[in-house]
Amino acid sequence: MGHSCAECGYQYPDDVIEQTVPEERRCPQCGSSRVSAEAPAGPAAASATAYGPEKIAVAARLWPRWASIAIDRALAARVAREQAVAAKDPTTESSSLNEEFDAALVAVSASAHTLDAFYGSVVPATRRAEWRANRTKRRTAIHEGLKLVFATGPRNAAWGDEFKWLFFLRDASVHHEERPRETVPHPPLGTHTGPEYADYSTESADRAVRLMLDVLRWCVDNPRAKAPTTGPQAPTADEWARDNEPAVAGLESRWASA
Q1: 203 Cβ partners below 8 Å, 6+ apart?
Q2: What does pTM read for this prediction?
Q3: Closest CA relative to residue 121, chosen from 45, 39, 56
Q4: CA torsion, points 59, 63, 69, 73, in degrees to nearest 10?
Q5: 42-56, pLDDT tens digit by residue?
Q6: Do the beta carbons of residue 232 and residue 49 sit within 8 Å?
Q7: 71: exposed, middle or buried (Cβ count in 10 Å: 0-12, 13-18, 19+)
């Protein structure tokens, strides 16, 4: 775990942290007693800032957790689809389709939540506040925010279309309008179901996870040198990419090994 001054970013040697109590620590550069601690990037991470002996603030990093949930549920949707295809009776097929729907619904939403939390983890708070004040669409703010921190140029056109697709499905699931809709054939069984069962299927779950992983991989590979990010320590984009590449690689490995 690394420790730094919460005011100026000075990196404390490990022996200083080990040999002193919190109330005795003073930054040799600026004199602040506020110390930030950050755990290594991984499936879950958090950073903490000490304001004194009785007050500590903790910042959790949620995008790796949402990404992990998205992958787990997309894989579960695949299994449920296989069971539906292999079903010998309508009851088993219907039960498996319900399991696929539940898993895909979460996978699609969690993929969008990953990008949403990723945006909050790297895009400077001042820019996020501007878009919030202007009531900018969330998917647009996320896309534009990533452009500030990462060199997204070659991906911009494709991501624009895919972000629109993903956040439409995410919003439709959490702001659902319950009304009668004409049935549609469920891929690939041909069984007629409500359109939601076609919208939230193993195909859409896979597509959502692939988009999410493409965004994460491109960003850790293409940071804008020295571009500011956010968070307690506010690393530059290239520092952030270096520290978080292992987390992205771990997510990719889980997906590829399935």
Answers
A1: 187
A2: 0.79
A3: 45
A4: 160
A5: 455 555 555 555 567
A6: yes
A7: buried
In the structure encoding, which two tokens stand for residue 26, read together?
Answer: 């003073």
Residue 254 clears pLDDT 70, i.e. is over it: yes
Q: Are 96 and 84 in contact (CB under 8 A)?
A: yes
Residues 6+ apart with CB under 8 A from 169: 108, 109, 112, 199, 200, 204, 208
Phi, psi of 124 (to 5 degrees): -50, 140
203 phi/psi in degrees, rounded to 5: -65, -45
Residue 62 identity: L
If you count them, how many residues does the chain have? 258
Provide the residue type at 140 as one letter: T
- pLDDT recorded at residue 41: 46
If phi > 0 it is left, if psi is from -120 to 50 it is alpha, else beta; for residue 40 that is beta
Q: For residues 149-167, b (16+ Cβ closer than 10 Å) or e, as one string?
A: bbbbeebeeebeebbebbb
**CA nearest neighbour of 57 among 228, 230, 231:** 231
- Residue ranges per structural domain of the chain: 2-61, 63-256
